[in-house]
């Protein structure tokens, strides 16, 4: 990239800049015509110039084209108009000019805006492109939030400047020179004075602004660091809480903000000082005119007319001059910003663009061997972690790499994954340097999974299939408006030097999945097998069962789940297990559910406040009143309160039961105690107020007879509650209707989870192993109804959050291995990929992975850097590293007998 | 059976006889009611124990697994507590308890139990009852040993 922003802009927008300059020049003609016209209108038709006699007419639009030497070549005598007509005609022309000027302005501004936005797009794209091409070691040093703040915010002003980069100085410079020239013509010496003052102004002001620019640079850097700090706080929030360092962070932030404030305040002071000097200098010139010119006039060497003409002409000079100086300020400002950004993005040894060439077609041949030739690797501090390593791996091998001392094996695996670049020697794939091979070869022939994995914000499925998205494989055909939009999109992308690959095209390469039988379901099979191998399937099933989905979108699945609901029920009945679940029935009280659930007979939108907004609504009380439930439920609440106060009243405030057993705090128990006392003292017949009602209803709402066993739910009451269901749902007001969804045995409940939808009832909590029994039966029904894959599909839609943080560490590590397993590669490199798992699970997964990959027909090599050395027995070949070089290399059996190091490691 | 009745029942159990009824109500509330069919296991010998069961109705056998098969060493019915040792110390079940009729029981978890016991007064009462029980068991054991000796001699 160019060192100077102006040059960069010129290089990419040269043609447009020249075009817009021409347009600006052309726009000057109507602009100046419009200036002259008012004078003509006033002098002519209004004041009567040229219309002195009654009925006089004037030629309108008369003109002649006269060329030097040739004389007049064309002459138009004009139309003869009287005074009123001339007024009309001239006013009409004035209006026309106003419109033309407006249109010019509109066109120029949009053109400049588009020019700027395109340049901004180009520069942002180039910066991100550079990030993609940075050598790995360089990116370890930079701060992600700082880089993103550079790409997003710091380049923003470049766009605004681009449009004015050349047009502004050309126009303003022209105006200033014209004004100066005009003064010169009036009086040479006064002109010289003006010119000198201009020279001083142009000389001094930018110098003074140097300091401003330096401050601006500091402001930019501190702001960038501040952005980095904020993101660090967000990412490290758990560490901050764990070590009670939040106040240290507060101090740090406050310190930084103080620094930024100081810089900004300095900036303001300088800015206004410069403004003051600038204004002073431009006012000084008229002072000189008045004093020196006046003196000369008094002496008689200058006539008054000339002096006034000069002073008049000077009026046009400061305007353009000031704007010109402002332009220069803006130029220096963006130039500094540009240099700043460029500095960060000028990494040595950028990956050559050719390495990243788009390759839609995967080469259908195998690459082998993968070898290290005399490789030396340094860590970030420059210490050598691997030295002079030469080793060769062929396809079909299974290799365990073990580190005795140091981390040479780990480093070598990282070099295979291109996470580090060797400082000496090279990694070769089929005799070619890995770093010179296009990534379309190296990134597909080798699948690397390290311990520190990154996941992109999106669904589990997106992340699992991420490794298959190399290039757009299909060309999507668009029609109608979409086609126009796509054409526009491509055109704009090219105009800004971006790539125009279609994001909506099919990027998923279905031919490079590990399971490949040429069938349509290769991808699905690879995915399911990979999940099974890393034992992630049951986790995903759990995610699915706890998730909700929109039945409007997945109508078919929703219908099948309702179908499964009925099938589960009849299967349970057939097996004599109906007592395990109390199903939701529209006309029956569900003894395992709370009073509130029974009344609503539906699900409330999860989240705080749903219950309160119901308990606060007038509608709810009206319903209870008309179902004559208000009083019984209030009494029930009072009885519950009495019991709870009795049980919990004497417990200390911090007793763990307050959280475990009930949803009340010790303070709330106190409140209820007070309330009960108040009720007791109250004379008969006084009605409870709304708050008291609310408090008591809240208790009775959550009451489950089978759990609380206070004996408060009579058969009559439960009957009444069931009857009130219709009443409640009949005229549910809009603000509540969105919060509650009524149960319907024949419909999918959108607000409830998949599990709740299948069960459609409550587990009998008295039966000790009801959950397990139901799970076994339900799993059978699920397979019978062929819903297994669909459920996993729902689980795969789980949003894993930024960086996959909604998954556990173990799940992330498993996912990381699984996404390699889905890909068809010649070499699979696992670099201590499962450190968070316990030994037994590690053992099972490593075995599963090796078995799974060996079952496929492409005969890959598996290279696994083991943190658990005893797993080496699962591999045919073992390479032992000691202090950064290879100590032993051989089959497991030979090493077990011969190698001392290996024996101590594995034992 | 209501909470009140459960409390009455708990009071009939020696360990809890002298505990403040308020506390017993809390313990009952913190415990859950479970039902079993005939021939189901409450717990199995060798498993880690984390709760005791108070039988409210029905009956169950206490079974020891010996190398040559199962030996019934006792039975429990209403108003009895089984598996209570694990409430006070860690350890595995020394026997299996299997229902012979449908059983209703109150499951007292160690966690809930220890939290009710936070009160020192309660602890004293319960440990004294345990100690008495231990005393009885030890003297019984001694008598059995003495009997065995005599048999051998």
UniProtKB/TrEMBL annotation, chain A:
Keywords: ATP-binding, Membrane, Nucleotide-binding, Transmembrane, Transmembrane helix. It comes from the Bacteria. The keyword Transmembrane helix applies. Residues 63-326 form the ABC transmembrane type-1 domain. The chain crosses the membrane at residues 18-35, 87-108, 176-200. InterPro entries: ABC1_TM_dom, ABC1_TM_sf, ABC_transporter-like_ATP-bd, P-loop_NTPase, Type_1_exporter. GO terms for molecular function: ABC-type transporter activity; ATP binding; ATP hydrolysis activity. Pfam families: ABC_membrane. One of its GO terms (cellular component) is plasma membrane. Residues 370-907 form the ABC transporter domain. PROSITE patterns: ABC_TM1F, ABC_TRANSPORTER_2. The keyword Translocase does not apply. It is found in: Cell membrane. It is a multi-pass membrane protein. This is ATP-binding cassette domain-containing protein. It comes from Endobacterium cereale.
Automatic annotation (TrEMBL), chain B:
GO terms for cellular component: cAMP-dependent protein kinase complex; cytosol. Gene3D superfamilies: Jelly Rolls (2.60.120.10). Residues 15-117 form the Cyclic nucleotide-binding domain. It comes from the Bacteria. GO terms for molecular function: cAMP binding; cAMP-dependent protein kinase inhibitor activity; protein kinase A catalytic subunit binding. InterPro entries: cAMP-dep_PK_reg_su-like (IPR050503), cNMP-bd_dom (IPR000595), cNMP-bd_dom_sf (IPR018490), RmlC-like_jellyroll (IPR014710). This is Cyclic nucleotide-binding domain-containing protein. It comes from Endobacterium cereale.
